[in-house]
Amino acid sequence: MKTTYEIAVFEGDGIGPEIMAPTVDLLLTLAEPASYALRFVDAPAGAAHYARTGQSFPTASMDTARGADAILLSAMGLPDVRYPDGTEISPQIDLRKALTLFAGVRPVTIRPGHPTPLATDKPVDFVLIRESTEGLFHTQGRGEVTEDEARETLLITRAISEPLFKFAFDLAKSRKAAGRGPGKVTCVDKANVFRAFAFFREMFDAEAAKHPDIAADHAYVDATALWMVERPWSFDVMVTENMFGDILSDLGAGLMGGLGLAPSADIGHDHAVFQPCHGSAPDIAGQGVANPMAMILSAAMMLEWLGGRHDAPELTRDGVRLREAVEAVITAGAVRSRDLGGTDGTAAVAAAVKAALV
């Protein structure tokens, strides 16, 4: 049985290193008395690395990522450091494509006492799954532009969509078993307008038929945006195309109070990357005020994923412990970062999470 897990660590740009350091410290705190061990391996990449070396993603770092049991990636990119063609430096997208990380997992959780713009105290707990390798991002960096028009190509394939939908139904089953959801998957599309989405929906329905114990329904993306505001507690697992998921995941983060509380995972057959949804915030870098919670919650997702993948209940339990510690700090409200209306810095928030571990 595997007992040592290698974690590739991409420290990121801007506030990235500031939120990664306390996250790794928390993971080591959990592992110290445990029967498993975590070995962290640095993988240099990103905009700052490009500015220093002319390389945005060294081959050695990609090899480290491929060989690791999991990948922990902090905020990446800097607005004033770009490739000669003007595009942003995004190692996280390079990883998604290189490792075929088709399932972008974006949890949205609001507990009683959690500060939220929603005018309700009802708990919210759903997961948005964003396909992360094709869709409208298929021709990223390769779109056709002439003097009079521009074209991008949306791609939906059976090779990606079928495992995506299987992942969604498996997640709904595990959430139901854990008491976190009723066991329902909603396909979010625009099948009334685009043939590609009708194809997407057909494959969803075929997978749904294999899971009679899980409810399945459909929703158009525009209606979904409305319902996420009006009744977000009605969702369990949602699955959608890349661009739709990109937009709806930020709406989900807004429901939680901001990107500082929004973790994510990009998962494929053999690899997974865990990172916060927010950017590198270079305007506050070095000030010690960044909110580390999204990074910490992403690490909690990593532990739960490792536990499930390797049949290691202790890892799964520690992932739940870390997530619940963050939620306890949020709902208690005694320690609150600046983006959530408080005055506490990165170190104070991380210390509060460590104190809340039970």
Describe the protein's architecture and organization.
The protein is an alpha/beta fold. The protein has 11 helices and 12 strands. Strands 2-1-3-12-11-4-5-10-8-9 form a 10-stranded mixed sheet, with helices on both faces. A two-stranded antiparallel ribbon has the order 6-7. Helix 1 runs parallel beside helix 11 (346-356) and helix 7 runs parallel beside helix 8 (242-256).
Q: Note the beta-strand portion.
A: 15-25%
Distance between the termini: 26 Å
Number of contiguous helices: 11
Spell the H/E element sequence. Answer: EHEHHEHEEEEHEHEHEHEEHHH
Rg value: 20 Å
Outline of the structure:
The protein is of the alpha/beta class. The chain contains eleven helices and twelve strands.
Search tags:
12 strands, two-stranded antiparallel sheet, alpha/beta, 358 residues
Strand and helix layout:
Elements: E1 4-10, H1 16-31, E2 37-42, H2 47-53, H3 59-67, E3 70-73, H4 91-98, E4 103-110, E5 124-131, E6 144-145, E7 150-151, H5 158-177, E8 184-189, H6 195-208, E9 215-220, H7 221-230, E10 237-240, H8 242-256, E11 263-267, E12 272-276, H9 293-309, H10 313-332, H11 346-356
Parallel strand pairs: 1-2, 1-3, 3-12, 5-10, 8-9, 8-10
Antiparallel strand pairs: 4-5, 4-11, 6-7, 11-12
